[in-house]
Amino acid sequence: MVKNIGIDLGTANVLINVAGDGIVLNEPSVVAIDTKNNEVVAVGTEAYRMVGRTPGNIKAIRPLKDGVIADFDITEAMLTYFIEKLNLKGFLSKPNILICAPTNVTDIEQKAIIQAAEKAGGNKVYLEFEPKVAAVGAGLDIFKPQGNMVIDIGGGTSDIAVLSMGEVVTSRSLHYAGNKMDQNIVAYIKQKYNLLIGERTAETIKKEIGSAFEAEESQEIEVRGRDMIDGLPKVMTINAVEVEKVLSEGLISIIDAAKEVLEQTPPELAADIIDRGIMLTGGGALLNNLDRLLAHHLKVPVIVAENSLDAVAIGTGILLDNIAKRK
User: CA–CA distance from 213 to each of 28, 209, 242 (Å)?
Assistant: First the structure.
């Protein structure tokens, strides 16, 4: 029997939803390659553990950048590994796949995503826009003639869209998201404290004390890295107010993009959004007080999805069910 699987092909993580089984895989989008012979050494969680800790001949690569494929062969190898690991290919059958992309993806990038899924072992491959799938996964009924707005902040992109009757009415996609937040924290600590840290450490800082609005100075975290002056290991402390300032400029770009989307939204749908609020999904939705910051600037209620991290993967399962029922 042909299996239907949904793939959230994220810049930071890959999630796979198998029809009838739910989300069966959630692993980092990282592949470790031996540069001497170009062989894959590790994929997913095992490869992520190697980031920043590999010898010279082992390179940990993120094959997706800004929500699209940056390295086709490695993306194909990663998807093939995950599909084989889950034993999703039958002896005579290949799984049907629904896979997601940002709203600003080009035709060439769409073809690359579909081709990677086909080469990894897919039969029929469907492509959907991430904010649409995230909205469905967060529990919004986007198929009625009413306005629904979603802000999906992932690892590589932030996608903002207004949806009605199952389609995207107006949208924006920008390259400020979770990974960029981490890079900005790395750059700040390097510039202010002459301390070199890795992006994994920056991600920990963001998760532990990161805040988008009204951060508390009493929240602190110890940071370990390498002193740029003497080259020795060093420990220092930073607080949540510093991290809020680092993140503020990028978060304003998300607010500005959301304002543009609202300005382009037909009045009747805009009225629905005032009543229904904005749904916030993706890993970035978990940043402390981000919902309050957005509500403060957009003057519209903002709700964080209960399953914000898994919303896209859950949405792929629901949309695959709809496709099966239509058939």
Answer: 28, 12, 12
